[in-house]
Amino acid sequence: MxxxxxxxxxxxxxxxxxxxxxxxxxxxxxxxxxxTGSDRPWNLTRVQWSxxxxxxxxxxxxxxxxxxxxxxRYRDRLELNSNTGDLxxxxxxxxxxxxxxxxxxxxxGTRPQHKVHLTVKERLxxxxxxxxxxxxxxxxxxxxxxxxxxxxxxILSWTPDGYFNGSYLSGNPTSTNPLSVVFxxxxxxxxxxxxxxxxxxxxxxxxxxTVGCSENPQMCxxxxxxxxxxxxxxxxxxYIVLTAVLVVFAYKNKERIKDFCMNGPVQFIQNxxxxxxxxxxxxxxxxPSLKTCT
Length: 294
Prior knowledge:
The chain is mostly beta strands and about 290 residues long. It has helices at about 5-20, 230-250, 255, and strands at about 20-25, 30-35, 45-50, 55-60, 65-70, 80, 85-90, 100-105, 115-120, 130-135, 140-150, 155-160, 165-170, 180-185, 190-200, 205-210. It is rod-shaped. The longest helix has 20 residues, at about 230-250. The strands form four sheets. The protein has a six-stranded mixed β-sheet. Strand 3 (about 45-50) and strand 4 (about 55-60) form a beta hairpin. The protein folds into two domains: about 20-120, Immunoglobulins (Immunoglobulin-like), CATH 2.60.40.10; about 130-260, Immunoglobulin-like (Sandwich), CATH 2.60.40.
C-alpha cells in the first residue's frame, strides 16, 4: 500500500469517526441553521444535538421521529429537519453563542461527531445625527452636531461630504456611550454636508446631514428635541443638558486646546479643509475634542 493511499484512508477515517467542525455567524434576531455535516443524510438512523461539556441534549432524531427537549433556554425556538437532521435556532440571542455538538449514527454503524461553533453578532444600525445649536456672527457660521448609534464597541467619526473650505473639530465627550460631537465653522450663509460614520468590526454604516446658517436668526437655536418649548422649565432643562455635554467635552481635552489659544479665542482650526490642504483622516490622528483656554 502506497503512502498516498494510507494518508487518504486516514483522512476519510477521521472525517467519519472524529467528524468535522464548522463555524456559523448570524446577526441578532435571525435564524441560525446548524448542519449535521453528513454527506449521506438519508443513511442516518440517529441524530442528537447537545450543548455544554456535560452533554445537555436539546434535540434528537431517531427513526425519523423528531424530539425537541424542553430546555428553557431554547423554548419554542428550535426546529429539527426530519430528513437531514439539521437544527434551526430561531430568533437567536447573544447568549446563543456556543459550540453545538451533533452525534450521528449511520446505518453502517459508524458514529461520527461534528461540532458547530455559532457566533451571534449585533447588527450595526445607521447612526443618527442631531443639530445641537448654530449661530451666525460677523458672517461666520458656527454649527454643533452630535451623532449617536446603539451598540457596543462602535467607533464614530466625522468627515465633510464634498468640498468644504472651513474648519471642524470632532471628538467623543464620553468614553462609555457611542456618542460623537463635531463643531463646524465656515464663512457665509451657505450649506455644508457632514457625514457621520459608525464602524464595528466588519460593519460600516453612515448618515449625512446638510446644515447652514440663515441671515435672519443671529442667535443659537437648539435642536429639535428642545423646540417644543411650551414651558420655560423644559427649555431650561434642554440648555442645562446641552451645557453639561459641552463642558465635559471641553474638560476632557483642555490641555491640547492651549496650543490653539495663544492669539485669541478658541477658533475652529483643527482639520481645516481647503483646495491645498490634505483630506482629513480619522486614522492619521486621534479625534480631538473641544477644549477651554486656562
